Amino acid sequence: MSAQIHWQGRVLPARPEQSVGAALLAHGVRSTRRTRREGRPRGLFCGIGACFDCLVKVDGGPDVRACLVPVRDGMRVEPGGPAPEEPMGV
Amino acid sequence: MSDDPGSDALSSSERRPEPVEAGDPQAHPGVPTPRRWPVAVVGAGPAGLAAAVTAADRGVEVVLLDAGRAPGGQYWRQRGDVTHPPTAGAGGEPHAEHGSRRLRALWSRLAEHRAAGRVTLLSGTSVWQITRSPDGFVLWLTPSPGRPADGPARVAAERVVLCQGGADRQLPFPGWDLPGVMAAGGVQALLKASGTAAGRRAVVAGTGPFLLPVAVGLAEAGVEVLAVCEAGRPTDWARSLPAVLGVPSKAVEGAGLVAGMVRHRIPYRTRTVVRRALGEDALTAVELSPLDADGRPRDLVRRVEDVDLLAVGWGFTPSVELALQLGAASRVDVDGSLVVAVDEQQRTDVPGVWVAGEGTGVGGAVLSDLEGRLAGAAAAADAGASGGLPRRGGITRHRRFAAAMHRRHPVPAHWDEWLTEDTVVCRCEEVTAGRVLEAHRSLVVQDARSVKQVTRIGMGWCQGRVCGFAASCLTAALEGRRADEADLRGIGSRPLAAPVTLAELARLED
Asked: What contacts B85, CB < 8 A, 6 or more positions away?
């Protein structure tokens, strides 16, 4: 049984046994957010819920770890984590 | 499938333990009032499954709490959900002797015990805190991400067996925060649980025998594995022969993996490290360096281009936060990890608390299974069940093997020499190695805890799970010494063992 997830306007086929992070990675989405201070790209790192690098928002909800959340058909996934800080003195 | 995010979970009636005793008179309305269990087991990997099944075999009622979608832990990672039994070949490392047969045996006994009401399994449930109560312990629960919040907020137990497992140990290096650099265990988890290969062209690096199943697993999934970079010198195994001979299955397992490496023509470079990951917005190349006899990266650099996955791991860090929350005594193991001190029955120095598996020292699935059986039997005996304890012979042999393995695969003595000023050490708070040095220089802080407070290293979301070991080593090295138990305990103690909501915190007031 297949499913679809939405990532920033793209519709990506996925499988329900995949985590959201795995489904995104399978479509070449390696970075799922930017860091707060340096604006550096981050994606899956520990893969087992320890590191919090892969934070995403699902259906407008709070930050969740993409590596832990199972795919559900129709879910809308957006970058997570706190918004990057504005650079100072610009 | 339905829109319910928990449609693959156990039904809610199965998830909620029946309130059969008076329970907590202070219970908040709406918070289920749990009974008090004779034994709670935390974690359903090899150790926890063995502990729960063994205690239940002896007639003791057990609540088994597990963060995963299905029992098995990281080692026996299952696809899909708990209502489907594991299929042949679904469990275990690709070449592990200790694979699916043992898992299926535990699985069917677990199913029998659940049907008989002896084991209550709460999957998708994380324990974020454990506290003492006058008659035992209270385990505070939160649903794992994506799981429905229909389980109890806490359970009470007279005894606990903690089997929390561990996670890949990491050392920072330049570029390790680039997407495409992943923990070796995470790469394995993606393969096993999601059937997803994390890249096309991969380098596997770090130290320890676990790098081999990761490399072979990737190759079997069609990934081009360009090299396995092993910092240690595993050809020295001959020196450890007495320990290896005590555990013949390990030698068989190793031979199978080596055959897989040969079959897929994966180059195996020993005494070699990845000293830099390169790329703009994601990994594109890595730089390899050989180590000298003292464990220093040499200036020779070999660049490997067109790499989109670097799987890296330096052994494992046991998860011991719940035992530390209870104040259990700890020690530093052969591999430099902080572990819980246990006696010959897996008992900690806190009455009513047993620990089994990686939490007592990283040693792999077979050892975890043996320790789990012993801990489960000991907890059951403490609860008044009859039956003797399993012998410790297997545990002693596997522990000796693990110690020999750790000595063959040490963290390089001078790994910090590959750091640059702007290398991120703490990924969450974006603290660089330069900032750590500066804090030490300007603020005259001495210990890991002070550096943590000044720089916020290890104080982000992950609470030091990723950088804690490295940060402790770095700050100790600033004083010209090695990280000791106090350093590791300082950064390894976590008030929250899992993220919780403010509403869950508020329930503490009840």
From this structure: B104, B107, B108, B111
